[in-house]
TrEMBL record:
Protein name, as recorded: ATP synthase complex subunit 8
Gene name, Swiss-Prot/TrEMBL: ATP8
UniProt GO molecular function: proton transmembrane transporter activity
The organism of origin for this protein: Brachymeles boholensis
Organism lineage string: Eukaryota, Metazoa, Chordata, Craniata, Vertebrata
Key words of the record: ATP synthesis, CF(0), Hydrogen ion transport, Ion transport, Membrane, Mitochondrion, Transmembrane, Transmembrane helix, Transport
Transmembrane segments: 6-24
Length: 55
């Protein structure tokens, strides 16, 4: 049984991993909701702090 050259198989492995990661990356980026951070409204009045009823 002849010994196979590992070089093309290693390249195929790397190429398949790159394709797999690229597919997952595009799926994650397209499915993630784009929530931009919002600053708190400084003009609104703040409510009083809430306390536990048994304290």
């Amino acid at each position: 049984m002849p010994q196979l050259n590992p070089s093309p198989w290693f390249f195929i492995l790397l190429l398949s991993w790159a394709v797999l990661l690229l597919v997952f990356k595009t799926k994650i980026l397209t499915s993630a909701p784009h929530n931009s951070p919002m600053l708190p409204d400084l003009t609104a009045s703040h409510t009083t702090p809430w306390n536990w009823p048994w304290t």
